[in-house]
Design brief:
Blueprint (H helix, E strand, L loop, with lengths): L4 E5 L6 H12 L2 H6 L5 E5 L1 H11 L4 H13 L3 H4 L4 H21 L11 H10 L3 H8 L5 E8 L5 E7 L11 E5 L4 H7 L9 E5 L2 E6 L10 H5 L4 E5 L20 H32 L13 E10 L5 H6 L7 H8 L5 H11 L3 H17 L1 H9 L9 E5 L8 H15 L1
Parallel strand pairs: 1-2, 1-8, 2-3, 4-5, 8-9
Antiparallel strand pairs: 3-4, 3-7, 6-7, 9-10
Helix pairs in contact: 1-4, 1-15, 3-4, 11-14
């Protein structure tokens, strides 16, 4: 019996182009072109929310959706994501200067972000039809889409889920789950990089609040797709494993503001996925060795083996960004370089902001290449009944093993609800 597949994608700003390259190669698998979307459950945050929503909207024609997604990333320009004109940058700079210099006298709090990301909403509206998500759910091409965002007013992590009737719902400490129709506003909120892009105002069933990047508080990026019923997960990260760790310097310099911001974004976007997989790997070993029971501490939640396959860059994306910084609009280059000493000190930060065609095309090509190198492994993982040889992850998740169809996922979750009483 085939296990239910989930797709998990974390954020990373412009690094999300790498995910598009991986997905494009996966979409070329013959069986996918014949049978359609292999991922009934899709979860994403930040750039992963954009890519995940695009796949959910195109789930009925999955192979074509992956091609279109790669094309959009390959033709992207900075002006499609944030304002680059002289007037906008000058106005934004003046606001920061006034707040930092005279805010105590004149009243501060007017600066909202380093860049104005208003164009991103218009870009997504032109290319992404969110109404198709519900159509694909009705046609059984998709079970659920889940995207994360951070509520700046309450500090809580929100998970917005659009799925088939009866899909699981849960709430945890500092985490809120809401069933809703996902819109462009939800996607923009999830993709609003803290400090870099302005918060997005969202009206929810709990009231109106301002939201930002979903990776900020999403410490377990695999959890949403697991709790929605996935038994196997393909995770696409944007950090090359063991490739982005630099040696300690014997004569370190004081870090520039650009370096510090780069480290903060690395922690937020890159480290959570690796940490989550390490944690789940440890649980899986304890489960296999019999040190922990399949029943949770309360006796209500089961622990079941969850297989994962992680695809990450084979090249340090920070190094790629360093070679493309000159492609950014001059004013943005000047602004970012003013936060650092040289191109190298700004490369981490730039790797998230380089929404330029040359950079994104390189990342797409890299993602396509990395997936091609592992395509037999990926195809085997997607279509084997046991998840192949990568049974290395487990998480506390609900219910017994599920049947293969989208319809049966709903039935299984409904039965589990009755079981829990």
């Amino acid at each position: 019996m085939e296990k239910v597949l989930g797709l998990a994608m974390t954020g990373g700003g412009a690094r999300g182009a790498y995910q598009a390259g991986v997905l494009k190669r996966i979409g070329e698998i013959n069986r996918i072109q014949t049978t359609g979307n292999p991922f009934p459950i899709i979860g994403g945050a930040s750039a992963g929310a954009i890519n995940g929503s695009a796949l959910a909207a195109g789930a009925g024609e999955f192979a074509q959706a992956t091609t279109v997604l790669a094309q959009l990333w390959s033709n992207l320009q900075p002006a499609d994501v944030f304002r680059c004109d002289v007037m906008s940058q000058t106005r934004n700079s003046l606001i920061w200067i006034l707040d930092l210099s005279f805010g105590g006298v004149l009243g501060g709090g007017n600066a909202r972000s380093l860049l104005d990301a208003a164009p991103l909403s218009h870009f997504l509206r032109r290319h992404l039809d969110c109404d198709r998500i519900q159509d694909n759910i009705k046609r059984k091409h998709l079970y659920a889409l889940a995207i994360s965002a951070t509520n700046y007013n309450s500090g809580k992590s929100y998970l917005f889920i659009q799925g088939a009737k009866g899909h699981p719902m849960w709430n945890r400490s500092r985490r809120v789950t809401l069933a809703t129709k996902i819109t462009i506003e939800h996607i923009c909120a999830s993709a609003a990089i803290p400090l870099v892009f302005q918060p997005v105002r969202l009206k929810t069933a709990r009231g109106t609040a301002f939201f930002g990047d979903g990776c900020l508080r999403l410490q377990q990026p695999l959890s949403p797709v697991i709790r929605l019923g996935a038994e196997k997960i393909l995770a696409i990260g944007v950090r090359g494993e063991k490739l982005e760790d630099t040696e300690e310097s014997t004569n370190p310099r004081d870090p520039s503001l650009a370096q510090i911001m780069g480290v903060i974004l690395n922690v937020m976007f890159l480290d959570h996925l690796a940490t989550d997989i390490e944690h789940l790997d440890r649980l899986n070993r304890l489960l296999a060795e019999g040190h922990i029971s399949h029943l949770g501490a309360s006796g209500c939640e089961r622990m079941r083996p969850i297989t994962t396959l992680l695809v990450t860059p084979s090249v340090n994306l920070t190094s790629v960004a360093e070679h493309h910084q000159k492609d950014m609009p001059y004013l943005i280059q000047y602004f970012v370089n003013s936060l650092g000493r040289d191109a190298a000190s700004c490369s981490d930060l730039m790797s998230y902001l380089l929404f330029t065609a040359k950079y994104t095309r390189d990342l797409i090509a890299l993602g396509y290449h990395d997936a091609s190198q592992r395509i037999d492994e990926i195809e085997s993982y997607l279509y084997s009944s046991d998840g192949g040889d990568d049974d290395n992850v487990v998480d506390s998740a609900v219910g017994p093993v599920k049947p293969r169809s989208v319809t049966s996922i709903s039935k299984r979750n409904s039965n589990f609800s009755k079981e829990r009483g």
